Amino acid sequence: MTCEDVAHLLCVNFNQDAKSLAVGHSNGYILYKTSDVLESSILLDNADCSPAIHDAIIVERLFNSSLVVIVSQKEPRVICIYHFKSKNMICVYKFIKSVLNVKLNRDRVVVCLEDSIHIYVLKDMKLLHTILDTPLNRLGLIDLSPAGSSLIAYPASAEAGSVHIFDCMNLSAVNTFTAHDGPLACLKFNSDGTMIATASTKGTVIRVYSVPQGTRLFEFRRGMSRCVTIYSLAFSADSTYLCSSSNTETVHVFKLEKPEDQEKKQEASAQSSSGWLGYLTQAASNYLPAQVNELMTVERSFAHAVLPGSDKKNVAAMLTINGQPHLLVATTDGFLYCYRVLSSGGECDLVKMHRIGANATEANRGDSSNC
Fold this sequence. Notes:
Radius of gyration: 21 Å
CATH superfamily of the domain at 98-228: YVTN repeat-like/Quinoprotein amine dehydrogenase
CATH class of the domain at 98-228: Mainly Beta
Distance between the termini: 19 Å
Largest sheet: 5 strands, mixed
Strand content: over 45%
Number of strands: 30
Number of helices: 4
CATH topology of the domain at 98-228: Methylamine Dehydrogenase, Chain H
CATH architecture of the domain at 98-228: 7 Propeller
Structural class: mainly beta
């Protein structure tokens, strides 16, 4: 079976802890168990999908449970709540406009339309609250904290890069803060909802803010001037790393160092610099405009991975395997790549590659690459 035999995928999406990968295709959806990504040649967690659901463009799984939320390309205004082990369609909800995104945790299900957000109680799918007349959100940008207080984040403006935080448990607005000058392109909570990563449509700078305060904690630059489209942002489970993928072939991994670690690093760097050069650089930075000084102090990526191709949409995630951080990247042309992130940083090693999608099972039986 050649690469061309693997069907184009309609969506690829990791679950809340990156231990499961959901793939949507013309015949439905498939779930993969990513914790076996290094050892197993076949990752299938569930190959049997509902015969009533085809062309899945949104597939959201609740952690490693049997509950999935699906939206079909043929019926984009409908969400289906499905229990795949019992093969039971729990409920179906219809909306007046297309569903652009769905997020869920153990307490809430959040459905995003272009101008409204609908919040449901997970245990009985009762409609709890609707946020009407939100700023036009054609990309369906929204995220729900996987644990903690069930916070959602979404754009507070269609033109400016401001973020609005809403508490889905107490049904109250929490905070609004400006993350970027331009419109938002991506946002993502960490595992406990205490930090959020953001990127604008320009795509050169990625920032991390405290939640709910909205205080800037980190700023990372993935490029000096090349504007890109950021496809995904994802924290590691312990919030030590943050990865970002885009429409380029490079996936970046940033290290979120504690303030005391940053100070030690800066001191070591200053001591290693030649006396006059270090002195002049520090002195100059005190007199430079804020925008220029930011360019001097912003952090670059700690590590990076290079994808074989850059023309397909992708999603990235961080997963700890055998005590070591790994970078997972799934692409809509039917591949799952696993890279080892070295403690020293730099270019990540491609250690495994799997084919994913409707026609990929047989391909993986005879060709699961160890790289």
